[in-house]
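Standup, Tuesday
Yesterday: got the pipeline producing structure tokens again.
Today: sanity-check two examples.
Blockers: none.

Example 1:
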Amino acid sequence: MKNTDTMHAAYRVADELLKDRLKDRAPEMLSDLEDLQAADVIVTRGTYDHIEQVLEVTGTPCTTVDPRAIDGADLRPDQIIFVNCPGDYSPKGLRKLTSFVNDGGFLFTTDWALKHVLEKAFPGYVKYNQRPTADEVVRVELLDKEDPFLMSILGPEDDPQWWLEGASFPITVLKPEKVKVLITSKELGQRYGEPAVFVSFDHGEGKIYHMISHFYLQRTETRTKRQRKTSYDYMKEKGLKQEQFAKYADLGADRVGLGEVESAFTSRGVMSKVMYDKQQQIKKKK
């Protein structure tokens, strides 16, 4: 089990590494991400997940509100709403989320929000399979090998792990022709009947993203010799040079290993992909 300070350091290192990776391979994508303003990203608080902590650690501007504040919020279709588990919205709030996405907004949900938000506000796409997980870590695989953003940050050497908190909700895809599985896990499928880790689907003019378990990863496991290497070894895999390492020491790179940074990097990459996709949608409408 890794403590909070360790995982915060992992996320700080991962965020800087993602920026360096994009600066080298896709500077235009990095520019799009840096254009985000606080009003563009809304996070609704939850009991079990803390997406706002990742945004804070990585310096991403956002506005954090209680779920019930959505009832009276003036939502815009150019925004992204991140929903922390469990997603405790009123019936009015759920209706507003439906309209928000239908009009072009992006919605990102985690874990129990599958049942409490998606099944209610967007029925017929995905559902909880009624087989809650144990507290464990599984290996994940990237399925969408054509996605330009994910391909810019991940490489063939990556072997990320995903933390499943106790009682996480596996995802049953009801409409495979409409729901895209971006990240999967053979281990998850073997143990709980459904391999999907991260999915997305269009609804109206907008888009929904959902992932099993929590966005803020509180721990990881080092299963292989590679994962027990240092965080600097991971930076080398990503193409960084020795002269770039000094700034990472200040971010806590000496306190975390390759396994922690790799998991945080994958998690951070998922969030960045959602933000990048939103920026691309906005550009197309201008």
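Example 2:
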Amino acid sequence: MKVFVFACLIGLSLAASDSYGQKFTEFKKEFGKQYETVEEELKRFNIFKANAKGVLEHNRQQQTYTRGINFFSDLTEEEFKSTYLGLKRIPTSTSSPTFSAPSKSIKDLPNEINWVEKGAVTDVKNQGQCGSCWAFSLTAQVESYAQIASGDLMELSTQQVTSCTPNTLQCGGTGGCKGSVTQLGFNYLQLFGSVTEADWPYVSGTTSNDEECTYDLDALTPVVGLTGYNSLTPNDEAAVMQHIAEVGPLSIAVDASTWHSYSGGVFDGCSFDENISINHGVQLVGYGSEFSPLGVYDYWLVRNSWSSAWGEDGYIKLLRTSQCGVNSTPMDGTACVGGPGTDQQKVCGMCGMLLDTTFPLGVHMK
């Protein structure tokens, strides 16, 4: 009787909103969505409907970017944040690597750089239902710098980093799918090297578990090593732009809380008047300018880890700006348990993307 009642409720909901009912049916088919109960399906339909209305309303306005229906469209904002965002950063301290300083002004740099077109970026991956964005960000960096150094582009194991990187001080979470920081991953790979994706495939996105660290040097041979990592001066737009132009991509930390429905264009949806909480790790792979009916917009090209079905084939263009805001909850995104960094924090760039920028050193083939 209970199932019958809810089935009727779904029928009434869909009948009252034929277009959204059809869209929901198409959404489930496209993204392989299945729900365990009728109650859950009704709940997901109502969330989907609200999100779809938000997409439609946004796209009716003149905006620099568009929103769309994607895999996240049956999730609330809080569900999205808790499942797919999982990066926090280590606060700057005297033990951090030496910061690099720019030697050129922005006007002396090329107008456009794209490391994807240069052949230094592997295909977009999907972190799945695991907060391992930090591991994808740093693994992508090692892949890129190995290609820049050797000319060979290979896919390295993100599962190795997710499963094996220790996080005893609980920096940015407790490790694996529950959040960590790129710096710890670089330290781990400096000690053990990186094996290929083929030798250690990624499964945490399906299981939602960190999985056991089964690294056996007798069975798996590392193919890439590194000597360390470095960071740019926080919130320095010129330093970031020069590094992208002359050295290579960067691992960056961002507030991706409002990214879930992005589908294209130059994103300017992070407000500098609200809390900018760093919660996601991505790879900055270029910059350029985009012409639209509203004008010309300078952007940063960012590779995400939510599959190529999200955004612009897995990428997002962030508005290039040096404007700054405040992260008023640094303990949610910048500190280790018992460590420094509990005060509010100045963050610059769209979604705070200029705050924390790292890259590996001495990447080499083994």
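Quick observation on example 2: The chain is about 30% helix and 20% strand. The longest strand covers residues 280-292.
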